[in-house]
Amino acid sequence: MTAKSLTSSSKPAAHRAPTPSPSPIHSPIYSMTGFARLSGRVSDNLGFTLSLKSVNHRFLDPHLRMPPGTESLEMRVRRYLKDNLIRGHLEFTLTLDRGTERGARYNSSIVSAYLDAFRDAAAEHHLDQQPDLNAILRLPGVFATESFSMKEDWEALEAAVVGQLDPLIAALNAMRAQEGSSLAAELSRCLHQLSGLVDQVASLRDSMQNAYFERLSQRVAALLSGAGTASGVPMERERILQEVALLVERSDVAEEIARLRAHIEHFHLLLAAGGEIGKKADFLLQEMNREANTLLSKTSGIAGNAADITTLGLGMKAEIEKAREQVQNLE
């Protein structure tokens, strides 16, 4: 058996699968990073600002910051966010502009109650101290918060805020889609680099296999010439060469090359289809990384072009890691 016969009788060479040409994205690819802000007015004396920030997260994680007295509105907003967004850590903020009524509202009855309590405590403990006005003004309830006591104000505010939720989400998604397009372009570049590395490994595969076979054959020949039948057990040359061929076949990276190309093609199709591809893309990259690790383990310690293949395999892992960093921010 020769190196040539081994190569032809083992696994077929992994022919390069054609990389699909880029096609129009059917659905937007959304990043989980975005920000939007909108403002509105209920009346001359009451306005509001809505802001919504999104960053990457494994699940949908909404956090709302709203003024006291808006609890029922908060429930509506939270439900709306869950119905219209899929993943991401969300920070929704509602701030109010009270117009000419802006500013702290002094609550004299609360202050009087604090002063009475101070005097009673001083008298009870025989203390000769005067109240500290600065300290009292910092106590809870001294200044009124922005809550709603007028039904008209509340109903108008709730209707106005709910009416701005659709435009707010649209503005957020516009930024997320723009960022998602940039991420998709970067992922396409990573796939192009990865595909080139796989092609280089494929071009070195046959010469590596032949060199490995020749190396093992020479070692076997040296053993046979020195061993003879001294042990009393004849050493069958053909049997040993078959075992050598099996070892070489097990070191073949044809299957890893084929699977890497299939995963790259699948990834291109995901990018072309668009939509919610984050988790699928991450899974594909995990599979690619597994194939790259297997390729490296098979070529470890093999002569010939194995060192070059090892360098290429490490390059694959670097590109896969770059892609995984980008994918973590995809919806």
Automatic annotation (TrEMBL):
Cofactors needed by this protein, per the record, are: a divalent metal cation
Q: Where is the Endoribonuclease YicC-like N-terminal domain?
A: 29-184
- Region of interest (Disordered), ranges: 1-26
Endoribonuclease YicC-like C-terminal domain location is 203-331
Please provide the record's keywords in A-Z order. Answer: Endonuclease, Hydrolase, Nuclease
Note the Pfam families from the entry.
YicC-like_C (PF08340), YicC-like_N (PF03755)
Extract the InterPro entries matched here. Answer: YicC-like_C, YicC-like_N, YicC/YloC-like
| Recorded coiled-coil stretches | none
* Entry's Gene Ontology molecular function annotations: hydrolase activity; RNA endonuclease activity
Q: Compositional bias (Polar residues) at which positions?
A: 1-11
- Give the family from UniProt: Belongs to the YicC/YloC family.
- This one is known as Protein YicC
